[in-house]
Amino acid sequence: MPAHGSSPQRRRREFEVVRVTFITADGKRLAVDAAEGARLLEVGQGAGMSLEGTCEGQMACSTCHVVIAPDWFARLKPASADEEDMLDLAAGVTRTSRLSCQIALTPALDGIEVHIPGESRDMQLR
Known about the structure:
5-stranded mixed beta sheet, Ubiquitin-like (UB roll), alpha+beta
């Protein structure tokens, strides 16, 4: 029998919680907690936001377009050229627009504010 504390055990990494505040087109605010590493698209969908994500995060559409609050935009990793190309197809694009499928939440983004554009469309009727 192994000595106390010497048996192999898997250590589970604890993830930080990242708070995200979604602001709908009509101005309603919804704060949700998400695990570090979660994609903003899935967090928004789980919170009932009208983010379709037709391509399921493969960056082949622009149906997960969001507008990041200006104070938070600079904290994101820069958009790739492919993401910029997809944003050209989105309605209501602004200087701080991003595809939510391309944003992985990190502790540095705790408190981020995300606006859901009024022009967003949701083919899945959620």
